[in-house]
Amino acid sequence: MSLKEVEDLAGPPWQRPLTGRLEQLVVESELLAGNPLGDPARRPLYVYLPPGYADSRRRYPVIYVIQGFTGQVDMWLGRSAFEPNMIERVDDLFSGVGTRRAIVVFVDAWTSYGGSQFINSAGTGRYMDYLCDEVVPFVDERYSTAADRDHRALTGKSSGGYGAMVVPMLRPDVFGAFASHAGDALFEVCYLPEFRTIVRTLRDHFDGSYDVFFDRFRARVAEGARFDYDRYGQPLEMYAYATCYSPDESRPGKALLPFELDTGRIVAPVWTKWLEWDPVRMAPKHLDALRSMRAIYLDAGNRDEPHLDLAAQAFSKELAKEGIDHSFELFDGGHGGIAYRYPKALKVLADTLAT
Which residues on adjacent β-strands are paired with residue 62? Predict the structure, then answer.
């Protein structure tokens, strides 16, 4: 008996045929060119077109999906055991009955520090402008979209959930709805407790120096070593946030830290800069933008390890205090393994934007 090649998909569980279509594009950004970290201006961009798109003359609402820290867009194709991947989840949602169809765009805003928080920063680059002023017009020009903010939404988890809250507050001209899964917020709860751990990690393993840390981290990346999150994860993540929230204007690509490296003591002027980027504290300053949203969906696991369930509750509380319509759900779960939550938010957004 001999093995023969078959001209077809392998089928489940390796490849599931899509009812819709995924286009994997590469785009070149003018706004990201020459960014402080020297990261690529050429980016992948994934666009999911729902079933019936090619045969329809209608214009579709668009939902933009952004990723958590260290996320890069090709990760959406990855699979956990016995689960569909993200693209398959989206296809399942729009292939069924009872959900209005939408175009779904997966945006890459990775940086060599692991993330951009989807905001403009002198430390990382103009990632919010890239999203709002380059990606959105590109999609509207190329595809049959309902090209206005009332038919556009933003969604994501963790750092992506942060961007999904902050960007629509700052750019309500672009996005008219959003959903946040365990988005970074209430910074004194989700970030501040980590400062002391990072100080010990740097002291015990990196001579108390971020310069030493990055020398060793980049050497490991260059040699293709395993990413040791226990050793490198927290210091890298916090420095990336600092580069977004409190960039060192005198040293492009560098950050001002909100804590002393030898003691963990708060550096008040820098920490104040961070708090200005906290969605819970931003909300009262952007009430008109929040009131203009056609849908706001929030959720988080009740065992979320960075305690972003408390952050979601705090953000919801700010909205409720002002009578701003939104939905908030606390579910049984942690911070990871919650990809199954995306379709619920996508359905809320798609059904709202289609009207």
Answer: 103, 152
